Amino acid sequence: MPERPEPTTLPALLADSQGWIMERLLHHAAARGLARHVSPLADTWRRAVAAVCTCLVETARHYDGQPPPPAPPGAPASGPLEALAARQAREHRGSGARLGLYLGLLKLLRQALLELLQERPLPMDAAHPGALFVHRCLDAFEIALCTEWTAPDGDEALAELHAGNRELRRQADLYLSALESLPDPLLLVDGQGRMRHLNLAAAARLGIPLAPGSLHAGDAPGRDDGQGAHCLRTRSSLRGIPLAALIPWLAAPVAAFLAGERSVLRQQIRPGDPAGSRTYTLTLARLLDIDEPVGGALVLLADVTDQAATLCPLHADAPARRRELVQMVMDHTPALIAYLDQDLRYRFANAYHGEVFRLTPEDIVGRSLRAVLGEQTSALVLPHCQRALAGWAQRFELPFTSARGETHHFDASCIPHRTAEGVAGLVLMLQDATLRRRAEQEQQRFFEVSLDMLCVAGLDGRFRKVNDAWTRILGWERNELLGLPWAAFAHPEDADAVRQTFAQLARGRNMLGQESRFRRKDGSFRWVSWNALALLDEGLVYAVAHDTTRRREMEEVLRRLATHDSLTGAANRRQFMELAGRELLRTQRYPRPVSLLMLDIDHFKRINDTHGHPAGDEVLRALVACVGGALRGTDVLGRVGGEEFAVLLPETGEDSARQIAERIRSDVERLVVRYQELELRLTISIGMATTRGSLALDNLFKLADDALYEAKRTGRNRVVAAPPEPGGAGPDPEAETD
To answer: The domain at 564-737 falls in which architecture?
Structure first.
């Protein structure tokens, strides 16, 4: 299947990314605690966002991806964006929505659009005005929206409000009719477990006589039964009463659900009251807060007594033929399967028990849980068995050490056996997960002890799992990395390459030998070499990264040692000759002058003989610093002898070269070198030669060296220029522009 081309224009990008924009908007809404406003109405907001995005696409096409011009001051804006804003203002205002909520969602939409431009960059000529286009369009949309939202006069607003109220009442009647039509009991409780509402089936379960339709009518006050007890004749009189006072056996699971974090819970439960012969599937769902804080839970009871009454085939009272069939299946199952009665004594055990406990099923039947599993293991299993006997299915992990010292890890389940008389026993199943657990532990151990940075990421480049090496090398804690993309930590110059790499990985192409700079928590950067493998069926990328900063630093040190003088930091003779040769070749192709200065310290031997070589070394370092300060960025300074230095001046004629040479000589003459208690002064002699490329490098050096000799012979501390090459060096381009 051919790969889908990346959009190259702003209209194409917006048209291609509407789904992405909505998902990012919902993500930001959840991060800011607005999910209760957005998620229940996701389809409504999705349509609104789609309409805005479609209008943005049309606007982008109309203006060829450029920002639309702002409206003249005082003139009403009129365009597709403004018309859409007016329509949506009337629609959402009429439905009772709040302007602040809509503006907040527009802010999140703006953020999602700007992030789209960052994460899916367009070519520079198309991407440059993208952010300005988004800001200008959404500014115009918000202005038109607010103007229309606040525009109606009193009569129009009142009529609109009445129409909205009628629609809300119609919808409320529809929902209330559906609520009353449910055949199963349904209750609404608040966050403290107090009654808020119930349907007709729930009222019948509580013995409250209510007629269909009473939910829509006003409640009559309660009456006294003559014995001081208040008769609950209306649903409003139930509001605020704790659930424990109305349905005691339901209060505990509801309270536990409200105290937890789950949004939905389903379980089987049997009442503890006189009507306890029934079995229910209890469904608990947390109430979604659409606009204002509501809280609490929805409680639904479905009667499953008939289904639960089926006799467990492992029970002793099951027909013999069924027991034989089940026994055969269980004996060939590689797991410990047993049936325990209410006293937690074994009534059935499959043959696999013999491989773990070295006991036959006949030896196990009749024994207690403690006698089979041992004191330590049974203490771990006992609480789960007790909850299973109370009607709650259990799943847990169980470590176990056999009498022979063998360590096992089991995935354990306790399944209650419900009958018409209650929970008769439980099925205990232990599936050996030892090999899987060991493999997971070994994998995790390798993952954690690796000196390299290991990670698992999604195809979008966001971290899912990282090892400790990321913290050790880059300083970021795990929670600071998880959920964020690799590119967020890449050097700005490398971020695009990292995004492109993950785009290739998302197409199933493995990447090897990638090198990027990643930001440490302290703001510095480290060089990292990384390989990545994409598994498209899992939607994951597995990567290993190695810190190569030290290697690169060593390579740079070695490169500098090979090309620079270790004492002064100037280019060594080999490097200088190579750079000078390149420059002369360039002047042969593009005739421009180039000058060479030869510098020598006057009476340097006297400094070494009088004050020692350490003092001489300090003089050499100070000279290089002084000369380097007088040079341009394109000039090259090299040490070509003991106290002899050369300076290459590209595109510099004789007059300009003489000015530079005189400046260097003057600066050195004023230089004071401080070494221990000494203040040393020095002078230099300079010979210079200029060519336009007609001279070979050796000849140019000889001319400058002869000029240096002449400067020494005629008194030192001076600049002497070599005679011009045959035909003249020509005009000095720098002198011509002075």
So the answer is: 2-Layer Sandwich (3.30)
